[in-house]
Amino acid sequence: MSSGKHIPVKAQISVMSADEWEEFIEEWMTTKSAEYFSYEKLGGAGDQGRDVVGYKDNPVGQAHYLWDNYQCKHYKAPLMPNNIWVEVGKMCYFSYIGEYPFPRKYYFVSPLGIGTKLSNFLKKPEVFKLMLIENWDDHCKEKITDTKSIDLTVDLKKYIESLDFSVFDKISVLQLIIDHSKTQFHVMRFNTPLPPRPDTPRISDVIGNNEINYVKKLILAYNSHCDSEIKDIESVNKISLYKKHLQRSREDFLHAETLRNFSRESLPIGEFESVQGQILSGILDVVESDEINGFDKVKKAVSEAKKLQLPINPLSACITVNDRGGICHQLANDDRLSWCNPDE
């Protein structure tokens, strides 16, 4: 990125490890949250053929819950039937013995997709099923578990023949990339530019419930500076100095709230909070000073926040001076700082 060049996401995916590929699919599953009761990554030893799964129902205490399996296979070539017989065999065997129900859908997800032969099988479920049975001894019998051979008994074969193999399907890597680009993980995982930041809306004439705390603290700050009593918004609006300051403060706060929401949609939790923490550290000496009144303290702290050299952060390119001032008010709103004591 520093050289102006960016490695395409598809190329980065091609060199992922198997574990990174499963993590990527788990992140991608956040785009499916509305479709599932819950989801989890199970890939690893003892996963019984399940990598990343989505539960349509609550599986706890249920024998026949609905669920989907996303089988993550990271190979250097498109998936061929010989790559997946054992995985399909595991799904059939472990559902046969009651470890879990046969899935509602079973998706193969692979960086290079699936080959022509496997694609043709997926279009012909009954042929796919017959080919699994035919390949059982060579690809499944000794590989389903590490502890014993799994013979294709009459009952197991009859069970497999009863299954609906149209549940097996694929998801293209391009679709995965498009969906993943809408998640909060995409920028950090692939070092891509942030999407355009949305415009900050105009402030409302009415102070919202989400503003009440920091506005109360500003009123206390004005009161500590003014010779006459400032106790509410009506009092503030009678004095031009404070009225204009409150207007600017509310605009800055809305800028910072817009940035916070943008960060939550585009980046993992913690990136925006990291910026908040840096600004808090940079203005604490001002906030903790007893030598100035609350109003001067607010102005000095905001001024200091706007001058701080912040560490490099994914948000660095889109943080404005308004955001920096607004973050000071966010910190006050979240009770992480106050401009003066209530009895001042």
Structure description:
The protein has 344 residues and is of the alpha/beta class. The chain folds into 2 domains: 9-190, no CATH class; 209-333, no CATH class. 49% of the residues lie in helices and 7% in strands. It contains 14 helices and 5 strands. The chain has helices at 9-14, 18-28, 81-96, 116-123, 125-139, 154-162, 173-180, 186-190, 212-225, 233-237, 240-266, 271-287, 294-307, 321-333, and strands at 38-41, 52-55, 67-72, 105-109, 168-171. Strands 1-2-3-4-5 form a 5-stranded mixed sheet. β3 (67-72), α3 and β4 (105-109) form a beta-alpha-beta unit. The longest helix has 27 residues, at 240-266. The chain is elongated, with a radius of gyration of 29 Å. The mean pLDDT is 93.
The whole-angstrom Rg is: 29 Å
The number of helices is 14
Low-confidence stretches: none
Mean pLDDT: 93
How many separate domains? 2
Could you spell the SSE succession in H and E letters?
HHEEEHEHHHEHHHHHHHH
- Could you tell me the strand content as a percent range? 5-15%
Based on helices, strands and strand pairing, what is the structural class? alpha/beta
Side by side, the strands of the main sheet go: 1-2-3-4-5
Total DSSP E strands: 5
End-to-end separation? 51 Å
What can be said about the biggest beta sheet? 5 strands, mixed
Proportion in helices: 40-55%
